[in-house]
TrEMBL record:
Superkingdom, taxonomy of origin: Eukaryota
InterPro entries documented for this protein: Gal_Oxase/kelch_b-propeller (IPR011043), Kelch-typ_b-propeller (IPR015915), RAG2 (IPR004321), RAG2_PHD (IPR025162), Znf_FYVE_PHD (IPR011011)
Domain Recombination activating protein 2 PHD: 415-492
Chief localisation class: nucleus
Full protein name: V(D)J recombination-activating protein 2
Classification of source organism: Eukaryota, Metazoa, Chordata, Craniata, Vertebrata
GO molecular-function terms, A-Z: sequence-specific DNA binding; zinc ion binding
Family: Belongs to the RAG2 family.
Gene behind this protein: Rag2
Length: 528
């Protein structure tokens, strides 16, 4: 096992815990960036290029018939159809967190349409599901099993927000374990079916699941309710006859008490497990070999790599499978670098260089190597991880269109968790809803001063009735800092004064004597 250092200097703030990688034909694509996509890459999907130990990123595109795919962090992901890493494979993406910390319950299928040295195009389709649709979640797993010539997807585990009926002001954004139900998703008919198995008592998240044929092995994972890492090893077997599917669960011995572990395949039936945590603040530096047979699994300890002092002494680490026996590991570098979001990255190769040309992966692997956001109330919140699940190669990609985040304008002002004014006290870690219309993000209103900017309604001391009135009325709003300036710049309206005719002073009445012909002429003219 060898360790190699890689650099991602120009894109370090994008490579944050929670993103995933897609492998098409040996080319690795990044998905699930931190924050909303920017103009230079509106899809949020990038081609990764590792050359001379440096990681670069190139924007990818979606076809015109594609749906919108938000940058989901911590989703469940696996391949559907075709072998992993082939051009013809498709990826299933379910659940995850948006940049606003909303949870998704949607399921997407993404496939490669075309690729050349200049441009890569994908097609992304959202699948409509019916029946027992899994609730929005993250930190779970999804696998595809095959039985009797048919295939279904299996979703298990994860976390979700506390139900609305159980929320309190102090713990509005708290998360809980999802119920330990097993969901079968049939993509051909778009239906979901849930199964409650007596062997699965506690919810699990950030566990490892490995699928082979009609069997899924679930290893490790963390339970929020009990704050434990289960040492149990679960074997799920799915039978797909002509009638209703049958799901059985067996508890096996010889499991590992670990969460956020990483699995990579080194042979047709052999895998290597590295990384993860064995307690709330203790990394697991040991490695294991997993051997799968038709009806059994064997886990044995193997020689660990020569970890660097930085890896040994850091409190947290993260990473995921890169395919064909390689794993990408990362450790935070905030204490050593000027950029607070920067991380150090390593590629761990679990087999010799002469074995790197072996056949492509044949078993389904879905390893959730992620932990919690700092905003979530978890006992190991500093052990966030992001998911690399594909092989890194030196791609023949021109450097002309390489993405560099430094070239982008800062568009973070459009987020909900900005510092909107000098007295802003909205913090993602401590915020609780203030208005009845708020759920998991603060209400904002646009200030019309200059080019316009967003401010928090709560920071502007707006009452709920005034906020509703402003949202319904077609009027311009100015924040507290710009309202006086706006009034000073306003030109007073020109007032038009009405001209009044002066009244003639009253004097003595004058009598005019008229002759008789004149009187008749005057009276005739008066009555005509």
């Amino acid at each position: 096992m060898s360790l190699q250092v890689v650099s991602a200097a120009g894109n370090s703030s994008l490579l944050q815990p929670g993103f995933s990688l897609l492998n098409f034909g040996g080319h690795v694509f990044f998905f699930g960036q931190k924050g909303w996509p920017k103009r230079s890459c509106p899809t949020g999907v990038f081609l990764l290029d590792i050359k001379q130990n440096e990681l670069k990123m190139k924007p990818a595109f979606f076809s015109k018939d594609s749906c919108y795919l938000p940058p989901l962090r911590y989703p469940a992901l696996c391949t559907l159809g075709g072998s992993a890493g082939s051009d013809g494979c498709q990826y299933i993406i379910h659940g995850g967190k948006t940049p606003n910390n909303d949870l998704s319950d949607k399921i997407y299928v993404i496939s490669l349409v075309s690729k050349n040295s200049k441009k890569t195009t994908f097609q992304c389709i959202e699948k409509d599901l019916g029946g027992d649709v899994p609730e929005a979640r993250y930190g779970h797993t999804i696998n595809v099993v095959h039985s009797r010539g048919k295939s279904v997807s299996v979703i298990f585990g994860g976390r979700s927000y506390t139900p609305l009926a159980q929320r309190t002001t102090e713990k509005w954004n708290s998360v809980v374990d999802c119920l330990p139900s097993v969901f079968l998703v049939d993509f051909e008919f778009g239906c979901c079916t849930s199964y409650v198995l007596p062997e699965l008592q506690d919810g699990l998240s950030f566990h490892v699941s490995v699928a082979r044929n009609d069997t899924i092995y679930i290893l490790g994972g963390h339970s929020l309710q009990n704050n434990t890492r289960s040492p149990s090893l679960y074997k799920l077997k799915v039978d797909l006859p002509l009638g209703s599917p049958a799901v059985t669960c067996t508890i096996l011995s010889g499991g590992l008490s670990v969460s956020s572990a990483i699995v990579t395949q080194t042979a047709d039936n052999e895998f290597v497990l590295v990384g993860g945590y064995q307690s709330d603040n203790q990394k697991r530096l040991a490695c294991n070999t997993i051997v799968l047979e038709d009806n059994k699994i064997e886990i044995v300890e193997r020689v660990s790599p020569d970890w660097t002092p930085d890896i040994k002494h850091c409190r947290m680490w993260f990473g995921c499978d890169m395919g064909k026996g390689s794993v990408l590991l990362g450790i935070p570098g905030a204490t050593k670098q000027l950029i607070s979001d920067a991380n150090y990255f390593y590629i761990l190769r679990c087999k010799g260089a002469e074995e790197d040309k072996e056949e492509e992966l044949t078993a389904q692997i879905c390893s959730q190597t992620l932990t919690e956001d700092p905003g979530d109330s978890t006992p190991f919140e500093d052990s966030e991880e992001f998911c690399f699940s594909a092989e890194a190669n030196s791609f023949d990609v021109d450097d002309t269109d390489t993405y560099n985040e430094d070239d982008e304008e800062d568009e973070s002002e459009t987020g909900y968790w900005i510092t909107c004014c000098a007295g802003c006290n909205i913090d993602i870690n401590t915020w609780v809803p203030f208005y009845s219309t708020e759920l998991n993000k603060p209400a904002m209103i646009l200030c019309s001063s200059g080019a316009g900017h967003w401010v928090h309604a709560q920071c502007m001391d707006l009452s709920e009735s005034m906020l509703l009135r402003l949202s319904e009325a077609n009027v311009k709003y100015f924040c507290n800092e710009h309202v006086d300036l706006d009034k000073g710049l306003q030109t007073p309206k020109k007032v038009v004064h009405l001209k009044k005719q002066p009244m003639k002073p009253l004097g003595k009445k004058k009598t005019m004597k008229l002759s008789t012909p004149t009187k008749k002429s005057f009276l005739r003219r008066l009555f005509e």
